[in-house]
From TrEMBL:
Residues 7-286 form the Glutamyl/glutaminyl-tRNA synthetase class Ib catalytic domain. This is Glutamyl-queuosine tRNA(Asp) synthetase. It comes from the Bacteria. GO terms for biological process: glutamyl-tRNA aminoacylation; tRNA modification. GO terms for molecular function: ATP binding; glutamate-tRNA ligase activity; zinc ion binding. Belongs to the class-I aminoacyl-tRNA synthetase family. The keyword Lyase does not apply. InterPro entries: aa-tRNA-synth_I_CS, Glu-Q_tRNA(Asp)_Synthase, Glu/Gln-tRNA-synth, Glu/Gln-tRNA-synth_Ib_cat-dom, GluQ/Sye, Rossmann-like_a/b/a_fold.
Length: 322
């Protein structure tokens, strides 16, 4: 890896077909890196084995290729920081956990889901703050437990300050932001927070660009990356796509997929030009080639406000992007 070169990554989870929200983020990751002459990593975040499917992983590669949003390092192309699929990186996560364990930072948590729900998130969609119930358990108490524990990491009374590319300066006091969080689930799976931090650190990622829904996870990831002895990347959280009622477009709510739009005869330049215009990266509503988009789009124009996507998008696109 050459020092000084921007390294960005697009890190989708293959739990459905690539949807419009993924396209938006992938496009911005691609723009950020290509405008700076950096390297783009494609990382497949399939650490949630139950929800991830090989079919979707394969479809992601095809759909991104169809969009022209090509990457330099990834599961098929390889590269110096691989493997690029999380299910092939378990030994790396295990080594990171051992390092944290040796420093006395991890402890088993026996709390049931019901108990965790009872101390639940203050607002829907927010992470809950763990109350430290299992933190002080003695060895004798632990021996009496019969259920398989998850593993949590002790979070210090520290504040993390960072400057987000869109949301600006953020201060997060860790005990009030994430509390002691899970790094390995009771079913043995590595938690997203651990996997993503280890991967961004070890893959030499210098710039993270992703959806604003992950802004709240950033402080704990920065803390973990530094704890592992690496420099944290620069973060840019981008606005989410919503429908005209303000609901987030996502695959869970039958979000619009790339495949669907392609089947409706929409081409990739139209789709990306539309997103660039809606996202204020371009002043004009017209169709550009990807090469033109790379030249013309201005990432500084991104705002924190959600982006409203037109109803019946395929009709809108055929009318206004002929
Ligand atoms: N895998 C996550 C997702 O698809 C993104 C994680 C990240 O960019 O940090 O939502």
């Amino acid at each position: 890896m050459t020092a000084g070169i921007m390294r960005g990554r697009f890190a989708p989870s293959p739990t459905g077909y690539l949807h419009l929200g993924n396209v938006w983020t992938a496009f911005l990751c691609w723009l950020q890196v290509r405008q700076q002459g950096g390297k783009l990593i494609l990382r497949i975040e399939d650490n949630d084995e139950q929800r991830s499917k090989e079919l979707f992983r394969q479809a992601f590669l095809e759909d991104l290729t169809w969009l022209g949003l090509l990457w330099d390092e990834g599961p098929d192309t390889g590269g110096p920081a691989g493997p690029y699929t999380q299910q092939e990186r378990y030994a790396v996560y295990a080594a990171a956990l051992r390092q944290l364990q040796e420093r006395g930072l991890l402890y088993p948590c026996y709390c049931t889901r019901a108990r965790l729900q009872s101390i639940g998130a203050p607002h829907p969609g927010e992470q809950y703050l763990y109350d430290g119930h299992c933190r002080q358990m003695s060895l004798a108490e632990r021996r009496q437990m019969t259920r398989t524990p998850s593993l949590r990491i002790r979070v210090p009374a520290a504040e993390i300050v960072f400057n987000d590319g869109v949301f600006g300066r953020k201060n997060a006091f860790l005990p009030a932001t994430c509390g002691d969080f899970i790094v390995r689930r009771s079913d043995g799976m590595y938690a997203y927070q651990l996997a993503v931090s280890v991967d961004d650190a070890l893959m030499g990622v210098t710039h993270v660009l992703r959806g604003a829904d992950l802004l709240a996870s950033t402080a704990q990831q920065i803390w973990l990356i530094r704890l592992l002895g690496y420099e944290a990347p620069a973060y840019t959280h981008v606005p989410l796509l919503v429908d005209s009622d303000g609901h987030r477009l996502s695959k869970r709510q039958n979000g619009i997929t790339v495949r669907y739009l392609r089947e409706q005869g929409i081409d990739s330049d139209t789709l990306l030009s539309y997103l660039a215009w809606r996202g204020h990266l371009l002043p004009d509503r017209r169709r550009y080639s990807l090469t033109e988009l790379k030249k013309r789009c201005d990432l500084q124009k991104l705002t924190a406000e959600n982006i409203v996507i037109h109803k019946n998008l395929e009709n809108y696109l055929s009318l206004f992007f002929p």
